[in-house]
User: Fold these one by one.
Assistant:
Number 1:
Amino acid sequence: MSKQLKGIAASDGIAIAKAYRLVEPDLSYNKKTVSDTDGETKRLEDAISKSNDELKIIRDKAKESLGEEEAQVFDAHMMILADPEFTGAVKQKITDEKVNAEAALGEVSDQFVSMFEAMTDNKYMQERAADVRDVTKRIMSHLLGVELPNPALIDEEVIIVAKDLTPSDTAQLNKKFVKAFVTDLGGRTAHSAIMARSLEIPAIVGSETITKDAQEGQKMIVDGINGDIIIDPTDAQVAEYQQKAKDFAAQKAEWEKLKNEQTLTADGKHYTVAANIGTPKDLTGVVDNGAEAIGLYRTEFLYMDSAELPSEDDQFEAYKAVLEGMKGKPVVVRTMDIGGDKHLPYLPLPEEMNPFLGYRAIRISLDRQDIFRTQLRALLRASVYGKLQIMFPMIATLQEFRAAKQIFEEEKQKLQDKGVKVDNDIQTGIMIEIPAAAVLADQFAKEVDFFSIGTNDLIQYTMAADRGNEHVSYLYQPYNPSILRLVKNVIDAAHKEGKWAGMCGEAAGDPIMVPLLLGMGLDEYSMSATSVLKIRSLMKRLSTADMKAIADKAMNELTTNDEVAAMVKAATSQK
Ligand SMILES: C=C(OP(=O)(O)O)C(=O)O
Ligand SMILES: [Mg+2]
């Protein structure tokens, strides 16, 4: 019997394939005393040898499908397996303390991990802690006779089923075989969901129970447009969704025709439809989808993809590639936004009760000026290759903006003094994603060159509802009149000072939000590249005067998110 489930639609598209459970098995063990220590040592050696064979295969596969760099992590794992200090310590423990191999491995591993993690001034050794943890899991799985999921070995079409996916898990998915993913946890603006959209993989998050409901290899349908999941579908359901997939492809082909057009409304007004990117690799999607600018380059992925802080030169190359690739079209580069759900293995952050309210983004940059200044220098040097605009994330106060701007000016001056060419007209702006900044937008507008509204965070901070928590996702309300009024306040404040206002949160590519934003006069809309043509097509049939009436009604007469959504749908003939 087929089973239906609903989750939060996070990335468009339909997929039909077998489930692949990316779920860690239970690796818990009991500590036991053993008399046959030789036998126990032999069990350990077998498990190590099986782990080694497995890692060799995984390494080769990863190299083939993901590239040399992604595959290197498995080399590091094999080195630990071959390291007599580590494996020797486990064997010693079995013999000396007469304990089972699982307990000896677990305890030695914990010691190594704590030792590496304590070396806070040695990034290389700190990273080894994560490697030791991974290798321990692999050996333990063989000792316990359970199987670890090995996503790098996937060689047939699958739908990934997981509790949650971190941005780095998502980066390792091979698009050739991974047709979709479904998770228990998460919200539409979690970074794994954002990455799914840029990879053009259908995704559903926050299903709550998919890891309980879907068994390995079971056939599944994932409808990333509506958030529907069907496990073990009937033939009729498969046929129905094959048709839906065809319709979706036809719709996409229709949008494709707008690729080289400007974005004009029905009454002939031009607005900039831009794209968000995470790495220079995403440029292809931006160009293929005809985006008119890059409204947000999330540079933290450059830091996350690296084993250590990226050097000034590495960063320079990445920024230059993006600026050149856009051929003079504007590129808004956001300085590093680490913290919240984005971590760096080599930059341990303090454990926090509320990481989204803690040490992150500009707060880290102003504290760790060595990191910040390096990034600004790389940006300044790259600025001559295109139209660079720099944006600071998570600005709460004017002092923060002034401090960031001051550091930017200092670095610019130092480079110029050395005779390095930099663009003299780089605009500097801020993300508006903290309600304090949205409320004081009139004061900020006097000092910044532009605003870009980050609704992903602005909504979570205004509604006090974690953007990634499916239990409070009902409160994550982009169309709530409170959010709309804040957004309007920001746009009006910018315009009053002759500045421009954009939006780079996911709401900028939302077909219900866009008519409201047009009505409020938002200048720039930056979204997943895959939404650009859909939104251009929508804007083409809307008139700004009509949308102004709708936006005014939403902000002044309606009271709930749902009322606003229903009104916009009816007024713009959307289903
Ligand atoms: C665009 C935003 O930034 P991020 O999603 O990276 O937090 C936002 O908060 O809306
Ligand atoms: Mg944000």
Note: Residues 37-66 form the longest helix (30 residues).
Number 2:
Amino acid sequence: MDNEINSFPQVLTIAGTDSGGGAGIMADLKTFQARHVFGTAVVVAVTAQNTLGVQNSFMLPKAMIDDQFAALADDLHIRACKTGMLGDAQHVRWVVANLKKYNWGPVIVDPVMVAKGGAVLLDPDAIQTVQQQLLPLATLITPNLPEAEQLTNQKITTQKNIQQAAHQLQELGAQNVLIKGGHHLAQQVQDYVLLADGSDFWLEAPRVDTNRTHGTGDTLSACIVAELAQGHDLTTAIRCGKQYVTAAIKHTIQVGHGHGPLNHWAGQKEGLTHAEI
Ligand SMILES: Nc1ncnc2c1ncn2[C@@H]1O[C@H](COP(=O)(O)OP(=O)(O)OP(=O)(O)O)[C@@H](O)[C@H]1O
Ligand SMILES: Cc1ncc(COP(=O)(O)O)c(N)n1
């Protein structure tokens, strides 16, 4: 009976808010809505932010974080979750404890470190805690190139470096790895995927010439979470996420003076049905 009550696919983002609406929990919830799953959130950090940058941030106390997890565990049936901005080492530890305490389905780790505008969203001291405690819980980790460099302690300049870094992230405990190539300014953006069984592939798309790319990583990982919650396999979910984020970047909307947000209605705009994108 409980299965019937909680049968609609429910997902969770564990991250920071963005008052400007473009990244973090806001981008995740917009993506969940567009992808037809019910989105929930554990707020770890609150940021005062807009498309020009992060003006202030506040980390929530442990009791408030634990209570949010407990409230969800008591009532909902979360099928997949993701992490985003976690701020510092102690918050990473508190989140890890709650990931272990309950079952939230597959865990997608988006190891957010620095915002597009340059603000630090993860204390550099916390990187070791992410490597040692969070990575082993990751069904999939989705670093961008600078994050992959930090997590593997190496410069990444070639495709071979990217592949080596992905293997290193697996050795640290992440089951599957998606290294995002948005920060490499080539004509084609290339993301690299290394799966748990050792198979791999590249995802390619033409670079859209725009600075309206606030929240691209959040949107990609949130879409993957949504697809997993609906029962798709990981490869299908990743390919769908890539198609969705590419469309959301391509169909620019004019919001803000700086790094503008994506168009989370892009699937509808392209006339794509839910099943096609
Ligand atoms: N200008 C662009 N044109 C097309 N695709 C892009 C562009 N920029 C990023 N992407 C794609 O968006 C996704 C996110 O990549 P990116 O490297 O920007 O992540 P990120 O830095 O974590 O994003 P954010 O921190 O803004 O959330 C990847 O699939 C990447 O290839
Ligand atoms: C709360 C929060 N989470 C994540 C990001 C990263 O997004 P971006 O790199 O596009 O600024 C952000 N700016 N704010």
Note: The mean pLDDT is 95.
Number 3:
Amino acid sequence: MMKNRRGRHERGAPHADDAVAIAVRGLVVRRGPREVLHGIDLVVPTGQVVGLLGPSGGGKSTLMRSIVGVQVTHGGEVLVLGRPAGSPELRREVGYTTQSPSVYDDLSVQDNVAYIARLVLPRGADVDAEVARVLDLVDLTSHARDHARNLSGGQRGRASLACSLVGSPRLLVLDEPTVGLDPVLRRSLWDLFHRLAADGTTLLVSSHVMDEAARCDRLVLVRDGGILADSTYADLLRDTGATDAEQAFLALIDRVDGAAPAPDGAIAHPGDPGDPGPAPTPSGGGDGIRQETS
Ligand SMILES: Nc1ncnc2c1ncn2[C@@H]1O[C@H](COP(=O)(O)OP(=O)(O)OP(=O)(O)O)[C@@H](O)[C@H]1O
């Protein structure tokens, strides 16, 4: 059994490639009558904060749902920590927050978290200590006894985030966790994300606020069901000649739409001639994708 960077014994998942937390190949998803992901290839390295950025309706949530295994998929492969997305073995390894905070209004904040902790933690674990730990991480200790219905929007979001931090999952998939937060809270959440990453957790964080790009170790720009770029913020600015993420995003769109030429050394886009394609995926995954809900 291996130990991770936190010194914990890791639970069961194969480790064909510890450097890769998520490997997506050729992912196709249809929702209703439309195909909304058109053959996505994506590799997310372990221990990084990877931002999934792009305009509303581009497919960020659908991609995240596919990664956590709650999305019916129609082609391709999604491996998470070396296993097919949605595998039962991943339930304690992957934390997920949806865009709408998932908390029980009629329970206190601490009881919401304790409920999840009793489901997630091994028998005999110190639930109270874990509740205190995660509430401290999201700065909600002073609201521990408040009913969730009495929280502000930002506090509800952090209560939901606290639930997904229970048990220190190795992968956190967070759908717009900073939406509606004031700048101070946004900064403190991004600081938390980087502390977790420094401790070995991988984070996939979506946002349609382009100025959050600078806070990510890696950026994946999603538009119209495809990946427009997969880069670092610095490389994105260098390769587009832009001064901020929004400008860079628009420059990439113009380039893809044929309105602007790519400068030398431009970012390789998936599917471009010369694009080396995704990094090798870890072996040990299944031959299909678990399909749980529509
Ligand atoms: N339940 C659904 N049924 C049918 N189509 C859907 C459903 N949910 C989303 N879609 C469609 O799938 C596409 C991708 O949506 P998705 O929610 O993944 O985008 P997004 O980038 O996360 O957007 P946002 O930033 O607004 O959350 C959109 O065209 C959307 O209309």
Note: Residues 1-15, 264-294 have pLDDT under 50 and may be disordered.
